[in-house]
Amino acid sequence: MLTGAVLWLVAFTPAADGGEEPQEVRYDGHKVVRVDLQSQAELDRMLRISTDPWTEAVGVGPMDFRVSPQEMALLEDSGIDYDVVIENVQVLIDAERDRLAFVGLRGAGIGDWFAEFKDYDAVNTKLNELATLRPDLAEVINVGTSLEGRTINGIRITGPGTGKPPVLFNGCQHAREWIAVMVPMYIADTLINDYDTDPAIQDIVDRVEFFIVPIVNPDGYVYTWGPDRLWRKNRRDNGDGTFGVDLNRNWSVGWGGAGSSGSTSSQTYRGLAAFSEPESSALRDLFVASPQMVSTIDFHSYSQLVLSPWGYTLDLTPDVSLYDELGSTMAQAILDVHGTTYIDGAAAITLYQASGISIDWTYGDQGAYSFTIELRPAGSSPGFILPPTRSFPPARRTCRRRFI
Ligand code: 0X9
Ligand code: ZN
């Protein structure tokens, strides 16, 4: 039986240029714990203990954190009560890596592309296949280039005619949120493959110009398939030994405000300026190039939420009633199809303030009705390391259109 570590060595060949391979980041003995924080002081103490909150809502009340064995000792000393949600994060990562290696070895998943998570190259291959299958409906678009020189690919899908309202779906501003790659890919696949057989799909593809960008953060995504499964940010070298800017804190509306950090080591580091990063700039440029993008969904995981602006302020938008209606309709549709409960609401109020997020810009600057959808699962176990059967249905037929 191959262990996760052996498979990791098999999977990662030495760097062709003879350079240093990135060190594997391991999470042996790291737990995810749930604490019920009673005060701002307890929250501050907890944020000093752990650098990786695993709960959407950062605040007083119940919260989940990943803690290393050293941080666990600090937690014990702090007197804050906790429950263990995940015993050992590395066990989940190893199991996922073994499963993916096994799938790779036996060539499984070829018949059903959505039966397993897919890496950056496989996603690009699939985008090309979809466009080749239906050149009358789809073309692959080059949205931009990441810091490390990877292409940010998208696909444009629409039926005959021009002048249709454009809509953008994107995923994976955050590298470790793998399901947020698969869902936009599933949408693209469905729009193309069901066009001839499903009148509702044909109708919407004929009436709307879809832009789908499944991997906004290719460098981070590739990194999560390599040395660090839990990487979140892009791979900016911050020049002080730390890496990464949080792309979803790098947009200009509300940039620099509450719920973003000026500290380079933070998981929510906002960067030196709004749009300092090529990946967020690339998505912005795609948006601007399309005269009136009417709506957009930015996919993330996890928590099962349908969030609308604003993120940076507790104020309500002038469109609050429309957002409520759209948000609850989406949540209801998901419940009807999958029986999964999604909660909808304005991001800052439902959860926590987060400044410089993409939907505040796509709505506030561009006027597009914009949502962040936090996909499955609902909670921190298993959090980001979700088995594929829970991320998307293995059988397309059981669940044709909405599967989130
Ligand atoms: O923090 C984020 O960027 C998003 N959550 S995630 O766990 N995927 O990182 C949420 C952004 C919108 N939410 C709020 N403004 N609260
Ligand atoms: Zn995210």
Describe this structure in words.
The chain has 404 residues and is α/β, with parallel strands linked by helices. It has two domains: 31-87, Metallocarboxypeptidase-like (Alpha-Beta Plaits, 2-Layer Sandwich), CATH 3.30.70.340; 112-400, Zn peptidases (Aminopeptidase, 3-Layer(aba) Sandwich), CATH 3.40.630. Helices cover 34% and strands 17% of the residues. The strands form two sheets. Strands 5-6-8-7-9-12-10-11 form an eight-stranded mixed sheet, with helices on both faces. It has a four-stranded antiparallel sheet with strand order 2-3-1-4. Strand 5 and strand 6 form a beta hairpin. The structure holds N~2~-sulfamoyl-L-arginine (0X9) and zinc ion.
Summarize the helices and strands and which ones pair or pack.
Blueprint: H1 4-11, E1 31-37, H2 40-49, E2 52-53, E3 61-67, H3 69-78, E4 82-86, H4 89-106, H5 120-133, E5 138-145, E6 151-157, E7 166-171, H6 179-193, H7 199-207, E8 209-213, H8 218-225, H9 278-289, E9 295-301, E10 305-308, H10 320-338, E11 343-346, H11 347-350, H12 358-364, E12 369-375, H13 388-391
Parallel strand pairs: 7-8, 7-9, 9-12, 10-11
Antiparallel strand pairs: 1-3, 1-4, 2-3, 5-6, 6-8, 10-12
Bound molecules: N~2~-sulfamoyl-L-arginine and zinc ion (ZN).
